[in-house]
Write a structure and sequence with these properties.
Layout (H helix, E strand, L loop, with lengths): L2 H6 L1 E6 L1 H18 L5 E7 L3 H10 L5 E8 L12 E4 L9 E9 L3 H11 L5 E9 L12 E5 L5 E2 L15 E4 L1 H4 L1
Parallel strand pairs: 2-3, 2-5, 5-6, 6-7
Antiparallel strand pairs: 1-9, 3-4, 8-9
The protein binds xanthosine-5'-monophosphate (XMP) and magnesium ion.
Xanthosine-5'-monophosphate binds next to strand 5, helix 4 and strand 8.
């Protein structure tokens, strides 16, 4: 796909790379203060959270271990099914760990609510969530998310790790996907 073609697939840019980096810097300082002296485990949710994890964790002025989980509730559609499937489980035992789940976006909240319940049953000492984006109008379940980057309108967005059918993840900004692409 050529650069010009990609622009045709997007409408507004909602959050720029610069805004994302500035926000992650802020959140990293906050997290470092909150977890000072604690054993912190960052759990990234594949694949969307790859960019957030990379940029957030490198701004974190403290040691933290890192693990990944792959779940899917979407397939190639733009709506959450609520049916969550583990595609790759953690390698880490959560007993006694302070877990910070790193997510790209909270949409309906169904994926995270399932993950939170799942992690609680594994004996973590504490569990919090960091999400770069959140769509308040799309919430089907309330998620207690301690660290939120940006609240955005209820539109399907891509870029900075977020995909539509595995495309657009490598865009630097977060942009609204033009409806003609998926309708
Ligand atoms: P739920 O609805 O369970 O969704 O909170 C969580 C997961 O769904 C994906 N998601 C999106 N992906 N643009 C995307 O590219 C979006 O606007 C969007 N909304 C939800 C994402 O993987 C998220 O972790
Ligand atoms: Mg995701």
């Amino acid at each position: 796909m050529r650069a010009a073609d990609i622009q045709d697939d997007l409408t507004d840019i909602l959050v720029t790379e610069e805004e994302i980096h500035a926000k992650l810097e802020e959140l990293a300082a906050q997290v470092a203060t909150d977890y000072s002296g604690k054993d912190l485990l960052l759990v990234g949710v594949l694949k969307g959270a790859v960019m957030v994890m990379a940029d957030f964790s490198r701004r974190l002025p403290m040691n933290a271990s890192m693990d990944w989980m792959a779940v899917s509730s979407y397939g190639a559609s733009t709506k959450s099914s609520g049916v969550v499937q583990i595609r790759k489980d953690l390698d880490t035992d959560l007993h006694g760990k302070h877990v910070l789940i790193v997510e790209d976006i909270i949409d309906s909240g169904l994926t995270l609510s399932w993950l939170l319940e799942n992690f609680e049953s594994r004996g973590a000492e504490s569990i919090e969530v960091l999400a770069l984006l959140r769509k308040p109008e799309a919430a089907k379940v309330q998620i207690d998310c301690k660290y939120v980057g940006f609240d955005i309108p209820n539109e399907f967005v891509v870029g900075y790790g977020l995909d539509y059918a595995e495309s657009y993840r490598n865009l630097r900004d977060v942009a609204v996907l033009a409806p003609h692409v998926y309708s």
